[in-house]
Amino acid sequence: MKIALGQIDPTVGDFSGNAAKIVDFSRRAQSNGAGLILFPELSVCGYPPRDLVERPSFVARNKETAERIAKETQGIAVICGLVTPADSETGKSVMNSAALLQEGKIAFLQSKMLLPTYDVFDEMRNFAPARSQQLFSFCGNRMALTICEDAWNDKLFWPKRLYTLDPVEALVRAGGNFVLNISSSPFWIGKRELRRDMLASIARQHKVPVALVNQIGGNDSLVFDGSSIVLNPEGKVIAQGKSFEEDLIYFDSKTLSGEIHEQIAGEEASVYAALVLGTRDYMRKCGFQKAIIGLSGGIDSALTAVIAADAIGPANVIGVGMPGPYSSKGSIDDARELANNLAIRFELLSINRVYEAYKETLRDVFAGCTEDVTEENIQSRARGTLLMALSNKFGAIVLSTGNKSELGVGYCTLYGDMVGGLAVISDVPKTLVYRLSHYVNSRRAVIPAATLEKPPSAELRPNQKDSDSLPPYEVLDAILEDYVEEAHSVEQIAADHGFELEFVRQVVRMVDRAEYKRQQAAPGIKISPKAFGYGRRVPIAARNEI
Fold first, then answer.
1. For 42, which of 328, 337, 405, 523 is 20 to 30 Å away at the CA?
2. DSSP for 94-148, written as a single string
3. Same structural domain for residues 260 and 280?
4. Same structural domain for residues 133 and 260?
5. Which is catalytic among the residues 2, 45, 92, 148?
């Protein structure tokens, strides 16, 4: 039997659009001789739907859409993800389910047993777990149909398991000889390799083929990479889909041969593709056609502008230079050169008169006070006001340009450089910003050499450098990775890197004090195992006795 994997980009709540994709991919697969096609987890309603599943109308529309898909895909069996009513004592009204659509109706339903509650996942909040799972017969096989997390508890792969139950093991023990998994598994650095190795372990342990279809696209902060995969019982990849693109992949369930589509390789290339896809989908799914970016002449705004131009096209990007009293001519020239290289619109709006008006308005109130960070923040907020004015006037989204290193220690200004609807590189450490920028220029030199070479500076006071306030970025990023992503103690971080203990404490205190800023920041695109945002939930009003 020829089986297809429909690697699609659904939108949460877009039932008609999602159904159209499922029907289109199914008909294409049928015309190419496939008898079965798999679609990702919750592909009918989009993933993650979060609290939308609490709305009865959402659940009802979900069922109606699945029934319509079944009627429109007769001639090929379809497996797709959807929300179904729950009959449980948990108080949850719905389950995360997979439906087999055959001959115009829902022929089989399987619901998810393992509901993740870590990092960005909070499925126990919304769904009831399945009490049991069954096999279904198809093309001479006893199919073990699982949903995403159901396959993430292999005892031979994980040194410490999160759940006592392993649905894959139970289904194979019941006679299953072919594992199917429909997933919405988000991307982060190293995730594709981890997913492949885990599935290979399952295939080898149980001596069964394993097929996983994964969604692609950006939904809020999450990016899904696709990279659908099929492995034979030896754990060898016999079919795979592209990364960060919709794709239709075929394999033969008897001969266990299939199509190998090329995937994006390399950390920088993969992260860049994720950022472009996440930006494009966030804008498209939120209804924005144009983006505005404040161009400082620095590397962060330069990388953000390149990503935006690749995501939505140069004609839809507006770069805005906003020189102030301490801006260098070189920075203005670098911003203009970048805009010319990208062929994006460039506007130059000086903040000098606005800044002086602010100071004059506050002169009497500030009498006797010396200038300090207050005046620096006024400059930043003046720029933020101009960007938001342009956003309102032109109906364009402002893309903020702060990186993870700055956001981590609060080296950013609320209502200033933090304004915007999407923080494109807020999960990208400064050292990775440089690596991505060099990767961009390796394809086509668009970021000016001076931008890559000059010391980072906010240019809010004379001769200012980031290093005046922060440790070297390679040092800061090492501490942030250990503290934020690995949850290491200050003692362990100091010992592992040979840093002074009090120095590490100072950095960690900066991280903890900045939580109130981060919780007011625009959503960012997750590319690391632990990003700031709803995957890292720490209180603002707290004392960390380190």
1. 523
2. EEEEEEEEETTEEEEEEE------STT--HHHHBPPPS----EEETTEEEEEEEG
3. no
4. yes
5. 148
- Return phi, psi of residue 504, to 5°: -65, -40
- Selecting among 2, 21, 41, 80, the annotated active-site residue is 41
Q: Check if 112 is active-site.
A: yes
Let me know whether 243 and 382 are in one domain.
no
pLDDT, tens digit only, all 546 positions of the chain:
899 999 999 999 999 999 999 999 999 999 999 999 999 999 999 999 999 999 999 999 999 999 999 999 999 999 999 999 997 677 789 999 999 999 999 999 999 999 999 999 999 999 999 999 999 999 889 999 999 999 999 888 998 899 999 999 999 999 999 999 999 999 999 999 999 999 999 999 999 999 999 999 999 999 999 999 999 999 999 999 999 999 999 999 999 999 999 999 999 999 999 999 999 999 999 999 999 999 999 999 999 999 999 999 999 999 999 999 999 999 999 999 999 999 999 999 999 999 999 999 999 999 999 999 999 999 999 999 999 999 999 999 999 999 999 999 999 999 999 999 999 999 999 999 999 999 999 999 999 999 999 988 888 888 888 888 899 999 999 999 999 999 999 999 999 999 999 999 999 999 999 999 999 999 999 999 999 998 999 999 988 777
Of 411, 429, 464, at which residue does a domain stop? 464
Looking at 213, 241, 265, the residue that finishes a domain is: 265
Say what the pTM is.
0.95
Instruction: Please indicate, yes or no, if residue 284 is contained in any of the structural domains.
Output: yes
Q: Is residue 473 part of a domain?
A: no
Domain assignment present for residue 6? The answer is: yes
The active-site residue, picked from 2, 21, 92, 112, is 112
Domain match, 79 and 210 both: yes
Which token pair is 67?
């029934």
- 375 with 258, same domain: the answer is no
Q: Are 213 and 307 members of one domain?
A: no
**CATH number for position 150:** 3.60.110.10
Residues recorded for the chain: 546
Q: Is 430 a catalytic residue?
A: no
What is the C-alpha separation between 71 and 65, in angstroms, rounded? 10
Q: Residue 400, SS3?
A: strand
The answer to whether 71 is a known catalytic residue is no
Number of domains making up the chain: 2
* Edge-to-edge strand list for the sheet holding 141-147: 136-138, 141-147, 178-183, 210-214, 229-231, 237-240
DSSP SS3 for 376:
helix
Distance CA 335, CA 320 (A): 8
Give yes or no: residues 71 and 133 share one domain: yes
SS3 labels along 474-517 = HHHHHHHHHHHHCCCCHHHHHHHHCCCHHHHHHHHHHHHHCHHH
CATH assignment at residue 437 = 3.40.50.620
Range of the domain at 172: 2-265
Do 43 and 74 lie in one domain? The reply is yes
Which has the closest alpha carbon to 307: 440, 435, 453? 440
